[in-house]
Amino acid sequence: MTKTGRIWAVWAVGLSAYLVGVMHRSSFGIAGLEAAERFDASPAALSGFVVLQLLVYALLQVPVGMMLDRFGARRMIAAGALTMAAGQLVMALAADLPVAIAARVLVGTGDALTFISVLSVVGAWFPARRIPLMTQLTGLLGQFGQILSAVPLAAVLYGPGWTPAFVSAAALGLAVAIAVVAVVRDRPDGAAAPARVASPREILHGLRSSWLEPGTRLGFYTHMGTQFSGTVFALLWGVPYLVAGHGLSAGAASGLLTVFVVTGALAGPLMGELTARHPMRRSWLAIGVIASNAFIWTVVLLVPPPAPPWLLVALVVVLSVGGPGSMVGFDFARTFNPSHRQGTAVGIVNQGGFYASLLVALAVGILIGHSGNGEYTPESFRVAWAVQYPVWAAALAGILVARRKARRRMAAERQRVREPVETA
Question: Which residues form the Major facilitator superfamily (MFS) profile domain (predicted)?
Answer without folding.
Answer: 9-410
